[in-house]
Amino acid sequence: MLNKFIEQGKNQFQDRNKLTVINDIEKKAKDYNSAFTQVMSLFEQRNQVVQNDLDGNGAEMRKSITKIMDRSASIRDTDLLHKSSKLQEALLLGRLYVSKFLINNSVEG
Hints:
Distance between the termini: 42 Å
Strand content: under 5%
Shape: rod-shaped
Number of helices: 3
Number of strands: 0
Low-confidence stretches: none
Largest sheet: none
Radius of gyration: 27 Å
Order of helices and strands: HHH
């Protein structure tokens, strides 16, 4: 729709100053559209990384750590149980921070 108005303006006006402004608007509109397309592409890449890498790998890591914790509890290895619980805490906090970053793009926790 904007392109239609730009073309109308180019055909309607003869004044050089007005045509310069219209040409500037046209250039900025093209730049905006290009940047918007790039942002949409980056969001799609982000979504693919989340779906294909982060979601599955994070869940599998948590399951593996839970197995280690269960095993260490069953053999009464408190040192291993303590270390694996700290590992699980770090993993869960890491996943939380990644989720927060993906929501607001801020590195602040």
